[in-house]
Write a structure and sequence with these properties.
Layout lengths: L2 H44 L6 H21 L4 H9 L1 H13 L5 H20 L11 H22 L2 H21 L6 H7 L4 H23 L2 H23 L9 H19 L18
Helix pairs in contact: 1-2, 1-3, 1-4, 3-5, 3-10, 5-11, 6-7, 6-9, 7-9, 7-10, 10-11
Length: 292
């Protein structure tokens, strides 16, 4: 096999690693939500939610899902990873239907099919190269973080659910962009030594904190279904577009239109499922959305 064949095989292997990692992250995010919801149900009579083993287990699974998301973002474009992660809402609906007997409407079943089909198209449209961040992206992300933090002040005071959910989606999307913007070296020791000098590393922490605050505020001012739908759309679409501009992400030649259609199907299905009775696993909207 020639050098060109070896290069194609290597690129294909990279895509497979990214797809497997993002799909596994979606599964773990769904499992984390179910565990946290089960812990939340027991918290009322048995004590604070942070003392519930199921809730704590859910947080641990959440962290594992985030680690896999970070891995996926090193190999796939942001738009592909975010779209696959949005599919976790379909997994949650199916799991809740099987485990708790919660109903799935006909429109929910259609939404699951549309979501899965859209995810398959988006994944297939991803370019072979996850892209290389342009110079100064870390600083750009910090400026964006500062702008969002300033905008968060009047939004927090107003307490309107939809603007806060949009802000949360932008912040969690910023986490994905910042993760991709961090320059990794050849060894873990070297990474740990140079990480404090990486602006994108601080952006990861800042965006994550802002996202959690905005998401919590959104839930206090509106229904979880509305908040989740807005969050899913914002977190899946905006970072993906930003990744094309800032991170050099690519779409396979001739796949721009199918990718757009697939993204609409995936996000649209996720929005429908966010309003499904199968998502009402917990009595209160105490769960947070996982970051990326």
């Amino acid at each position: 096999m020639g050098a060109g064949g070896s290069g194609r095989e290597g690129a294909r292997a990279v895509l497979v690693v990214g797809l497997v990692a993002s799909a596994a992250a979606a599964v773990l995010n769904s499992a984390a939500g179910l565990l946290e919801a089960a812990g939340g149900r027991r918290a009322g009579a048995a004590g604070p939610v942070l003392r519930q083993p199921l809730y704590l287990a859910g947080l641990g699974v959440d962290l594992a899902g985030f680690a896999l998301t970070v891995l996926a973002l090193r190999y796939l474009p942001v738009f592909a990873v975010q779209a696959v992660l949005a599919g976790s809402i379909a997994l949650t609906a199916l799991a809740a239907h099987r485990l708790y007997g919660l109903p799935l409407r006909r429109v929910d079943r259609l939404a699951i099919v549309g979501c899965v089909a859209g995810l398959a198209v988006v994944a297939a449209s991803a370019g072979r190269d996850a892209g290389s961040p342009a110079g100064g992206v870390g600083v750009i992300l910090l400026v964006g973080l500062a702008a969002l933090a300033v905008a968060a002040v009047p939004m927090w005071r107003a307490g309107n659910a939809v603007p806060c959910a949009v802000l949360a989606g932008l912040a969690f999307g910023g986490v994905a962009l910042a993760v991709r913007a961090v320059h990794l070296r050849t060894t873990l020791v070297e990474d740990l030594r140079t990480l404090p000098a990486e602006p994108a590393a601080y952006a990861v922490v800042g965006f994550a904190a802002l996202g959690l605050v905005a998401y919590t505020r959104a839930l206090t001012g509106g229904e979880v279904a509305t908040v989740t739908g807005v969050l899913v759309v914002t977190e899946a679409v905006v970072p993906g577009l930003a990744g094309l501009v800032l991170l050099g992400d690519t779409v396979r030649p001739g796949w721009a239109v199918p990718c757009a259609v697939g993204l609409v199907l995936a996000v649209g299905g996720a929005v429908v499922l966010s309003r499904s009775p199968a998502q009402r696993v917990a009595p209160e909207p105490a769960r947070r959305a996982p970051p990326g």
